[in-house]
């Protein structure tokens, strides 16, 4: 039996990168998985890749009506949620001088507001004893140049994990933050203007990683699986880093 046999999981931002790798791992471990994404074509491709026990729901977590549709899709299939991986997020570089209202509002609107309502609206469907995992980032606890707004949004996610772990303890719902470092995903590529710039960025980032390489999405998924499964049954309120030692050494 898999570690999530018979359980239902929801993964936001599940069409690429860490979200897709995690949804695949959850399904391989026996879970029935709902994934979200903003682009229908990518959502369809990801759902087909995961397999027959996956449902894709087009959703932008910054749109509360979309979140309502997501959870309506879960309820319509007579499912209750055992694992919620609130993973969807955005990020782009901007120095203090370059920050605009649009940059701030989009980053906080998705990463902070969107995550909050993703979890709040799931509460009626969450089983007692469920696991909620919030994607934070190494950027939430260090000062990366030109990443101030993103870092602040991820620091807020870390704070949410502590607060919600305390608020939901009466239902034995565990809430933890997952903080990946540099993982080889389309999100990293999207921080650069072109493929050449993306490779230069990755080469630069490798210099700050004690393990001397960029992480793989499946390695991040393995860490999330730990938080999702009964292997972490006495773990709540923590921040689990999967960063190759970047913020640790």
Explain this structure.
The protein has 249 residues and is of the alpha/beta class. It has a single domain, classed as NAD(P)-binding Rossmann-like Domain (Rossmann fold), CATH 3.40.50.720. 43% of the residues lie in helices and 17% in strands. The chain is built from 8 helices and 7 strands; from the N terminus they run E-H-E-H-E-H-E-H-E-H-E-H-H-H-E. The protein has a 7-stranded parallel sheet with strand order 3-2-1-4-5-6-7, sandwiched between helices. Strand 5, helix 5 and strand 6 form a beta-alpha-beta unit. Helix 4 packs parallel to helix 5. The longest helix has 22 residues. The radius of gyration is 17 Å and the shape is globular. It starts with 7 loop residues before the first strand and ends in a 7-residue tail after the last strand. The relative contact order is 0.14. The model has no long low-confidence stretch (mean pLDDT 96).
Summarize the structure.
The chain is built from eight helices and seven strands. The protein has 249 residues and is α/β, with parallel strands linked by helices. The protein has one domain: NAD(P)-binding Rossmann-like Domain (Rossmann fold), CATH 3.40.50.
Helix-strand blueprint:
Layout: E1 8-11, H1 17-28, E2 32-37, H2 40-50, E3 54-58, H3 64-76, E4 81-86, H4 101-122, E5 126-135, H5 148-167, E6 174-180, H6 186-189, H7 195-206, H8 217-228, E7 239-242
Parallel strand pairs: 1-2, 1-4, 2-3, 4-5, 5-6, 6-7
Helix pairs in contact: 1-8, 3-4, 4-5
